[in-house]
Amino acid sequence: KKINGKYCNSDGKIEKFWKRIWKEEFENHSYLSAFERLFGDDNNYKISEKVIKVINDSQETYDNKILQALYCDLYPVKKNFLKDIFGNMENETDYALTHKFWIAVILKENGCKTENYNLDKSILAFAEKIAEEQERNGEVDDLYAERAAFLMNFGFKDKAKEEWIKELIKNQKPSGAWATPTFFSKEFENPHTTALAVWALVEYSQSCPF
Question: Where are the beta strands (DSSP E) in the chain?
Answer without folding.
Answer: none
